[in-house]
Design brief:
Elements: E1 2-7, H1 13-24, E2 29-31, E3 40-47, H2 54-58, E4 62-70, E5 72-74, E6 83-85, H3 94-100, E7 106-110, E8 119-120, E9 123-124, H4 125-130, E10 140-153, E11 156-163, H5 169-179, E12 184-194, E13 197-198, E14 203-204, H6 213-216, E15 229-231, H7 234-241, E16 246-247, H8 272-275, E17 277-281, E18 287-294, E19 297-303
Parallel strand pairs: 1-14, 3-12, 15-17
Antiparallel strand pairs: 1-3, 2-3, 4-11, 4-12, 5-6, 7-10, 8-9, 10-11, 12-13, 16-19, 17-18, 18-19
């Protein structure tokens, strides 16, 4: 099962998982997308067999709201680092930002912060930075699907961003300010959605208990709105549960038609792995397995045993 947690500021994503792990023990759990300690908002926590869905959750678009302080910079690109105030930088104006934002839509090149989880020569960049080593991080391609200016003040601006996996919002605000001849650090960040998981529906961490967490859990299928699905019953469902292939031969072995994804938004970049998968579901909407088609058969690639449903 899946929990949509409203991560509080000041806690790491690992902190949240560790706390939930104590509630769901002996089941294992993990999260599907790190949030910085400064950040709040949607953190999807996967429990037991749902941990196998983490790679699929990473593919879903994420939406953020962020605020940046202008005229200053830091080694972390946010207010958690050592801040240097610069007094002679041009003002970051609404007009300047409005003109610049369209250039940041689509696939762009971005340099992650020095203090980030990006690996450099096999080590996390933040590990190298904390030891005082010079960290040279290469630019990489990220996808910005939607970018809206929410507010501009004399010393700050706020954005709403919908983006693909691997995008650093800290870097986005930094680069926008630099392009306008200034500098900026992120002061607030909230993840407002991951796919269909919305902040309005998120559960406060301090409200969860060992007795009530199951009541807050969401089904596995909610992690896969971008995959087509096929409803199975009877022998077909049993074969999928056993990991046995299903022959695609309507005259011998009738199967229902494949249903389209719930989310068909072009912003969902389905990777090679995801593009080959079909979600097999039972009549009650429970996820049985993820299938892929090969040589006239649907092969179960990942099976979610009925016996382990929570």
């Amino acid at each position: 099962m899946l929990l949509n947690i409203h991560k509080p500021s000041g806690r790491t994503s690992r902190d949240v998982v560790d706390e939930i792990q104590r509630l769901v023990y002996p089941l294992r759990c993990g999260h599907a997308g790190t949030l910085d300690p400064l950040a709040t908002g949607v953190l999807v926590v996967c429990i037991d067999s749902a941990t196998r869905l983490v790679p699929f959750l990473h593919e879903l678009p994420k939406t953020y709201r962020a605020t940046f302080l202008t005229g200053c910079r830091s080694d972390t690109d946010d207010v958690e680092g050592d801040i240097e105030q610069l007094h002679e930088t041009p003002a970051v104006t609404r007009a300047g930002l409005q003109e610049l934002l369209p250039q940041y839509l689509g696939d762009i090149m971005q340099v992650p912060p020095r203090y980030s989880a990006v690996k450099v020569q096999g080590k996390r960049a933040y590990t190298l930075a904390r030891t005082g080593q010079e960290v040279e991080i290469q630019p990489r391609t990220v996808s910005i699907h939607h970018l809206q200016l929410l507010d501009v003040q004399e010393d700050s601006f706020s954005l709403e961003v919908e983006c693909g996996t691997g995008t650093y919002i800290r870097s986005l605000g930094r680069d926008l300010a630099v392009d306008l001849g200034s500098c900026a650090v992120m002061s607030e960040l909230a993840r407002t959605s991951t796919g269909l998981f919305r902040i309005e529906d998120a559960v406060e961490l301090d409200e969860l208990t060992a007795e009530n967490w199951r009541d807050c859990a969401q089904p596995l299928l909610s992690a896969l709105p971008h995959l087509p699905r096929i409803p199975l019953e009877g022998e077909a469902a049993d074969r999928a549960q056993r990991g046995q292939p299903l022959t695609i031969a309507p005259e011998l072995y009738p199967l229902p038609e494949i249903q389209p994804p719930l989310l068909t938004d072009a912003n969902i970049r389905v990777g090679d792995r995801d593009s080959n998968y079909i979600a097999a579901i039972e009549g009650d909407g429970e996820l049985l397995a993820l299938l892929s088609e090969r040589n006239g058969r649907y092969w179960p690639r990942i099976v979610f045993p009925r016996a382990r449903r929570i």
